[in-house]
Design goal:
Blueprint lengths: L18 H12 L5 H8 L3 H13 L38 E4 L5 E4 L5 H12 L1
Antiparallel strand pairs: 1-2
Amino acid sequence: MTTRIEVVGRVSGRRRWTVEQKLTILRDAFGSGGSVRDACERHEVGSGQLYTWRRQAMSGELTGVQPPALPSFAEVEVAGPSAPAMALPQPVSTCGQIGIELPSGVRLTVDAAVDADALTRVLGVLRR
């Protein structure tokens, strides 16, 4: 009777992974039908390392490509009504929308073509 023994060895010491290798392993672990456990065993990498690479990939640190910045917001104060001015009609635009939230919880969304005098009057009424 013969007995067969399988020796499973781990790579010891530090290894260097290229960005392409890291991304391939991440796709293997987190892609559709992927499994972190299977990827760890297949590539002999710890799960902590995979999650570190995923965080780096999501922040752009791994590939050097930064994700688009989130829009920032600024507090705006509306001045009192000013003298009426003659304005030419502006073409209606689908972009350039501004969201306004008043302390009362009322929310308004206006676009770049909003009449400033009319908006001032509406905000004056809503403040009361």
